[in-house]
Amino acid sequence: MLKLKPLSLFIGVGVTLILLITLVTLTIAFTPLREYIPGYTDTKIRRSLINLAVKGDSLEYELELKTKYIENINNVIQGTVKTDSFVPKRDPGRNYKSLINSNKASKEDSLLRTEVEQKERYSLSINNGKSANNGISSFFFFTPLKGSVTNSFKALDGHYGIDVAAKDNEAIKAALDGTVIMASWTIETGYCMQIQHSNNLVSIYKHCSVLMKKTGNFVKAGEVIAIVGNSGEQTTGPHLHFELWYNGNAIDPQDYMVF
Question: What is the pTM of this model?
Fold first, then answer.
């Protein structure tokens, strides 16, 4: 006959309770039964909520970008584009023109230039005629700026483009499809931009107040690329200095478009 002592009964009941608690805990932790416990969240629901939160943040960011883009377009259309607040600092004690003129070419550089010119590569010769420009006669140019031509093309006098006077904050547009190869600021010409087009054609835009594109950007004909300004030393009022270079030759923009 089995005799139960109080100590043995206590130990047996304790071990049984511990086994039951462990079994219940493991069952809840590693089986789908835990989803039936009130207040316990389904893992799939949590994962879905996290995905929804990420998508919501992405949509909010994209909406903000679209809103800023539309605001910029409206500012360009209404002529309320803010000018760049950057003003280059100059040392009044230095003569910048003398520094520029003092940068004489070295002997090696002169020899290299002579060799390149003899091979007729990358030369920037002046072309006053139209015989060499037949390759671009079929292009449909978009006039970059409507205004008054205050200074025409005079290659022999060193003026390789035209000056088009216009009001402040007028939009400057790309003459053709192309890629921006330079967008920076210089002392003489202020904010300027160069665009490489097809068929070895390059267009140049100088004295801008704001540049809307960066180097490497692809632009379409008629797309706004800059804002008319009066930046640089070689200017006396708001205008655009516009140049066209074909195969390294400066050509008259008025031969191909009406301003």
Answer: 0.51
